[in-house]
Amino acid sequence: MNLQNHKDSIQEKGFTIINNIFSDEEIEKISEVIQNIDTSKETFRKSEDLFAIRQFLKEIPQKCYSR
């Protein structure tokens, strides 16, 4: 991972993409939690073509992360 490339991307585009942050097992666990979470709160947005979680880290329990 080239940190300078990520810094440049954030400066130029406002975001960066860092691949392979989570293992396959971690992704499965996070996905499972998302599928089973109560989406009736206003921090969740759902439509035919959109599913978004505002304040993701507040809504998804820390126990998802094994690191």
Describe this protein's structure.
The two termini are 19 Å apart. It contains three helices and two strands. The chain has a two-stranded antiparallel sheet with strand order 1-2. A hairpin with a 2-residue loop joins β1 and β2 (50-53). The protein has a domain at 22-67. The mean pLDDT is 78. The protein has helices spanning 3-13, 24-36, 56-59, and strands at residues 44-47, 50-53. By secondary structure, it is α+β, with helices and mostly antiparallel strands. 42% of the residues lie in helices and 12% in strands.
Can you tag this structure with a few keywords?
67 residues; alpha+beta; two-stranded antiparallel sheet; extended
- Please bin the fraction of helical residues: 40-55%
Spatial order of strands in the largest sheet: 1-2
- Low-confidence stretches are none
Overall residue-averaged pLDDT value? 78
Strand content: 5-15%
Number of helices: 3
User: How many DSSP E strands?
Assistant: 2
Biggest β-sheet, characterized? 2 strands, antiparallel
Distance between the termini: 19 Å
Order of helices and strands: HHEEH
Shape: extended
Radius of gyration using CA atoms only: 15 Å
Question: Structural class per helix/strand content?
Answer: alpha+beta
Layout of helices and strands, plus pairs?
Layout: H1 3-13, H2 24-36, E1 44-47, E2 50-53, H3 56-59
Antiparallel strand pairs: 1-2
How would you summarize what this structure contains?
With 67 residues, this protein is an alpha+beta fold.
